[in-house]
């Protein structure tokens, strides 16, 4: 006859088995990550072909925990477009402005599409995780990490840390709760020179820096003059109507054609001069002539 202790033990085993199954579903993972205590600072999970360390209290971290990746399809889609259009060059460098915690950096590294990656990230919270994720995925030899913002001159700038979504931290304040810190800033040309990289070796620029794109572009005119493919988040919500129109005119001085990406739709081919400025935000790939 089963004792009370054995019955309780069996009940616990069944309960734990059912809980593991439930919390390994997408809904279960979403529920779990939203109730984790604040004292749990970081988590590391197995994402299949790589591991990722993140804050479970950050928007990107929660997405990784639920889905096993963060917008990896954007990297796959971009590489497919570049290759289909004959714009991908082997043995070139990827320049990433806004490396965040290294999600896209790792995806590009695993793809082996580029022989070297230079990833720039100014937020110290993100940069610490970026270093961890590059190291633990064995990409140290491929990826050069640079802890600064990209700007027109050397020095320091005010930087605003978003408290709920570290990916929205920016040189532009977005929320009254943003924490202001000071970060180093360097021109892209100087960063590449220090890394021993010629502008002609860069095969792609990937940029996601929350409204600071016009400033960063002015710091890498050598790359734009060479018409290096440039993929970026274009954000009229940050630039304003006049600023957006001015930025479009500036980009059109270097590039003629572009592809505008919506979430799940095929990219739309446009002239750069006709890029929409009445949207909140979208991704765009500026194409060589």
Q: What is the helix content?
A: 25-40%
How many strands, what sense, and barrel or not for the largest sheet?
Answer: 8 strands, mixed
CATH topology name of the largest domain: Rossmann fold
Distance between the termini: 82 Å
CATH class placement of the largest domain: Alpha Beta
Query: What would you call the structural class?
Result: alpha/beta
Tell me the fraction of residues in β-strands, as a range: 15-25%
Number of domains: 2
> What quaternary form is this?
single chain
Identify the CATH architecture of the largest domain. 3-Layer(aba) Sandwich
Shape: elongated
The helix/strand order is: HHEEHHEHEHEEEEHEHHEHEEE
- Strand order across the largest sheet: 5-4-3-9-10-13-11-12
Which consecutive residue ranges, at least 5 long each, have pLDDT under 50?
none
What is the tally of beta strands? 13
Q: Give me the CATH superfamily of the largest domain.
A: Vaccinia Virus protein VP39
CA radius of gyration is: 21 Å
What is the arithmetic mean of pLDDT? 90
**Continuous helix count:** 10
Commentary on this structure:
With 289 residues, the protein is of the alpha/beta class. It has two domains: 4-67, no CATH class; 72-287, Rossmann fold (3-Layer(aba) Sandwich). Helices cover 37% and strands 22% of the residues. It contains ten helices and 13 strands. The chain has helices at 4-23, 26-33, 59-67, 72-84, 103-111, 124-136, 188-194, 213-218, 221-225, 236-252; strands spanning 43-46, 51-54, 93-97, 116-120, 143-146, 149-150, 155-161, 179-186, 202-207, 230-234, 257-261, 268-271, 282-287. Strands 5-4-3-9-10-13-11-12 form an eight-stranded mixed β-sheet, covered by helices on one side. A hairpin with a 4-residue loop joins strand 1 (43-46) and strand 2 (51-54). Helix 2 (26-33) runs antiparallel to helix 3. The longest helix is centred in the N-terminal third of the chain and has 20 residues, at 4-23. The chain is elongated, with a radius of gyration of 21 Å. It starts with a helix and ends with a strand. The model has no long low-confidence stretch (mean pLDDT 90).
